[in-house]
Each structure stands twice: as C-alpha cells, then as structure tokens.
Amino acid sequence: MRPFFKTWLTICLLMPLAAHATNREQRLPNVNGFTPKSHASAPSNKGKQVKHTTLSSTDRSKLVPPMATKESSNVLSRAVNVLGTPYRWGGSSPSKGFDCSGLVQWAFARNGRALPREVREQFLVGREIDSDNVKPGDLLFFDTGSKGASHVGIALDHETFVHAPRTNGVVRIERYTSSYWSRRYLGARRVE
C-alpha cells in the first residue's frame, strides 16, 4: 500500500476519534439509519423554550456508544498504520508480517498494554461487551472453524474492524457485520 494512501486513510479514520479526544463535540456517524441527536452539538437555544425529554431504555439501546478513549485511538492508529502489511502465520511485527493475534498484541503493546499472544488467551482478557455496545478499540472474536475463538480483530466502529485475515492476505479493514463474519462472531471484549 502506498504511503500516501496509508496516511490519508489513517487521517480519515482517526479524525473523529481525535476530535473526541480533544473534547470537541461533533455529530456521530449514522449507524443503521439512526443518528442520535442527543450526542450531536446542539444549536444555541438562547431565548427559546427548550423541551427536555427522557429516553426510554429501548431508545437508549439504539444510541451509538461513546467514541473511543485516547488510549483506544492510539491502538487503532497503530493498527491502521500497518494496513497492507502481509499476513504471516506467527508474525508479530510490521517488518515480518502479522497474524491476527500478533497484530492485536503488537498494537496494544505499542500503547503499553501487554496482551497474551494466542487468540484463545486474548479471548479471556478484559471484560465481555454486548455486541450493541462495541466501541472503537474493542477486541472482536470469531470462530473460523476450530470450535472456539480462533480469529481476532480490533473494532474501528459499529460495523468495521481492522485485522490480519489469512494466508496470502494483508492487514485490512472489513465489515464484521458482513454475512461471513457475523455468522462466525463469538463476542467482544474491552481491554481496560
């Protein structure tokens, strides 16, 4: 992947996270046709009467989860910066290539977080997250044929993740909501 494209893609993906990390309010992305107004920057209501409403638990469950923390943003930045790196079984560095758990371990280690090397061990780290509450930086686990957690990636948002998918592949971004990945989805974990 060309360096210019990598830089451009990194900027496009991480600008919303950087804006949040600096406490700027912004409109969150439209997810499944729903853009939560409660998280958007509100226009000035000076001199206007404002009606406040309380969201029901059903409405709250439709809200997009808060944006990632600065730490999650740093982890994502590391992972996105190695897009296009070749897949290599047992690989755990940009120079030698990555397998899925090697990419995750490397990205977190660059942010001071030591994670186990194997997918099954990473599946035990942190706390379990409901699929409706996945945030950028959460780990997503899949069963790709070995009865249990056998693949891992890092969530970028409510639909996409960065991962090192397979032999002859490269580190890339895909939709984990696609039919292939959603059928194999096991769960998400948040490293805190």
Question: Please, how many helices?
Answer: 6
Largest beta sheet, briefly? 6 strands, antiparallel
Which architecture name of the domain at 70-190 does CATH use? Alpha-Beta Complex
Q: Helix-strand pattern, N to C?
A: HHHEEHHEEEEEHE
Report the radius of gyration as a whole number of Å: 18 Å
Q: Poorly predicted ranges (pLDDT <50, ≥5 residues)?
A: 18-68
CATH superfamily of the domain at 70-190: endopeptidase domain like (from Nostoc punctiforme)
Within the CATH hierarchy, at the fold level, what is the topology of the domain at 70-190?
endopeptidase fold (from Nostoc punctiforme)
Shape: globular
Secondary structure: number of strands? 8
Structural class based on helices, strands and sheet pairing: alpha+beta
End-to-end separation in angstroms reads 32 Å
**What CATH first level of the domain at 70-190 would be assigned?**
Alpha Beta
Average of pLDDT: 75
Q: Proportion of β residues?
A: 15-25%
Lateral arrangement of strands in the main beta sheet: 3-8-4-5-6-7
The share of residues in helices is 25-40%
